[in-house]
Automatic annotation (TrEMBL):
Assembly behavior: Associates with the 50S ribosomal subunit.
Protein name as annotated: GTPase Der
Region forming the signal peptide: none
Family, per entry: Belongs to the TRAFAC class TrmE-Era-EngA-EngB-Septin-like GTPase superfamily. EngA (Der) GTPase family.
Molecular function via GO: GTP binding
PROSITE patterns: G_ENGA
Upper taxonomic lineage: Bacteria, Pseudomonadati, Pseudomonadota, Alphaproteobacteria, Acetobacterales
Organism: Swingsia samuiensis
Chain's gene name: der
Keyword annotations of the record: GTP-binding, Nucleotide-binding, Repeat, Ribosome biogenesis
Length: 447
């Protein structure tokens, strides 16, 4: 691969934050590339780095400030503009000892508008120095800052990992549970529910009668058949269909219903359809399964089946909605669809509901939006006193999706009472339209 095709990482930031020091760290003893790309100044420092086995082109924007306009921000901007344009990733350095300056904030605003991926670095954070500034750096709205020390070589390995993870076509080796971005391939869907809720019937209706009654082919047992459905958005893979059939054949007693079998199905799925026999209303076991879905962090659609056999539909719908609202507050707003798996009436509403909740499950809220809301939420209801002292909550950031997971930073944040956490989670759900998916809120205390 020639140098022009390597992924480009650009180091930006105001003078003296340690860009050149970091550049030298990343490049090590590797040869600097002489650039003759159009638009790239000759004296821009460029080099090739090896990170986790990948060759990466690193551009240092330091030292170009002199020739540019007179405000500091103007100089930062003009020295970085071209480089940022061609960057696959921008490393935005701030000085964790000096703290966030107005020039940093101004530059961050500009950088955010460039639409390039940015990794925020709090440099000069050797030892424990700079924790406050690192925290302050959240306010730049560029995500979680990574603390490091270019001079002392601290955090460089982690930085390289973070860089490689953000580059295009970087090989991904994360387990499914840790997935942060949606993987390629079909959406994985599981159908669970108590025995006799109508899971097999639903499966039959979804995939078509004839495929279900096909006997096992040579070398392939019926239980192993993977089922792919198609809708206008692409493929949906039904996982654990073997489990449904097995459980349908064994006439299990309700109380012996295998929760562990459901957990297996949940782990393989991204979205789970919880099938409920609407003629029986919502049972404690249905709620148990819903809580399992919440605990495993999956997206959920509730399917009220046997709607053909329900006599008073509006009363039934209301009664079930009330029960869910009270009993499953931690997943408020779960989509509910009603249908008859037996006749097929209404089953066409299921996959659109699945797609929709899948999008919510994958949702990302920017740190800027999040903290604008967060400030208002704090104003409306002050955090409570704990041991006579008010907790000081500072910043919030979304660390992952699938399900949406947020981290709240603040002094003694870990002492935050559950009621206040619920207040924040409900606010997040409403403000950022996250109905029907688990929301995680983690506390991170600072001194
Ligand atoms: P640039 O011009 O913004 O690229 O910054 P330099 O790389 O020239 O560094 C500016 C100053 O900060 C130099 O005196 C460096 O030795 C110092 N420096 C760089 N990285 C660190 C660090 O991690 N910790 C400390 N304490 N100083 C650093
Ligand atoms: P599973 O144990 O969850 O797989 O449930 P089945 O699919 O085996 O269905 C249990 C019983 O409910 C069977 O007798 C089905 O015919 C019946 N059933 C399933 N779906 C419906 C439906 O939509 N309406 C009615 N009236 N009966 C249904």
């Amino acid at each position: 691969m020639d140098a022009e095709n390597l992924p480009v990482v650009v180091i930006a930031g105001r003078p003296n934050v340690g860009k050149s020091t970091l550049f030298n760290r990343l490049i090590g003893r590797r040869q600097a590339i002489v650039s003759d790309m159009p638009g790239v100044t000759r004296d821009r420092k460029e080099g090739e780095a090896l990170m986790r086995g990948r060759r990466v082109r690193v551009i240092d924007t330091a030292g170009l400030e002199e020739a540019a306009p007179d405000t500091l921000f103007g100089r930062m901007r003009s020295s970085s503009e071209t480089a940022v344009e061609i960057a696959d990733l921008v490393l935005f350095c701030v000085d964790a000892r000096a703290g966030i300056t107005p020039a940093d904030a101004h530059f961050a605003n500009w950088l955010r508008r460039q639409g390039r991926p940015v990794l925020l670095l709090a440099n000069k954070a050797e030892g424990k120095a700079g924790t406050d500034a690192a925290l302050e750096a959240f306010s730049l709205g560029l995500g979680t800052p990574l603390a490091l020390s270019a001079e002392h070589g601290e955090g460089i390995g982690d930085l390289m990992g973070e860089i490689v993870d953000r580059l295009p076509q970087a090989p991904r080796a994360k387990s499914r549970d840790e997935d942060e971005e949606r993987p390629a391939g079909p959406l994985r869907l599981a159908i669970i529910g108590r025995p006799n809720a109508g899971k097999s019937t639903l499966l039959n209706t979804l995939i078509g009668e004839e495929r279900m009654i096909t006997g096992p082919e040579a070398g392939l047992t019926r239980d192993a058949i993977a089922v792919d459905l198609h809708d206008e958005h692409g493929e949906i893979r039904l996982v654990d269909t073997a489990g449904i059939r097995k459980r349908a054949r064994v006439d299990e007693a309700l109380e012996r219903m295998s929760v562990s079998a459901s957990i297996e199905a949940l782990k393989m799925a991204e979205v789970v359809v919880l099938t409920i026999d609407a003629t029986l209303g919502v049972h404690e076991q249905d709620l148990q399964l819903a809580r399992l879905i919440e605990r495993e962090g999956r997206a959920c659609v509730i399917a009220l089946n046997k709607w053909d056999a329900v006599e008073n539909r509006s009363a039934t719908r209301q009664a079930i909605a009330d029960r869910l609202e009270i009993s499953l507050a931690q997943m408020r707003g779960i989509p509910v669809v009603t249908f008859s798996a037996l006749t097929g009436a209404g089953v066409n509403k299921l996959l659109p509901a699945v797609r929709k909740v899948y999008e919510v499950w994958n949702a990302r809220v920017t740190t800027g939006e999040l903290n604008r809301w967060f400030e208002e939420a704090l104003e409306k209801h002050q955090p409570p006193l704990v041991d006579g002292r008010r907790l000081k909550l500072r910043y919030m950031t979304q660390v992952k999706s699938r399900p949406p997971t947020f981290v709240l930073f603040g002094t003694r944040a870990e002492l935050l009472p559950d009621a206040y956490k619920r207040y924040l989670i409900n606010g997040l759900r409403e403000t950022f339209h996250l109905p029907g998916v688990p929301i995680r809120l983690q506390m991170r205390g600072t001194k």
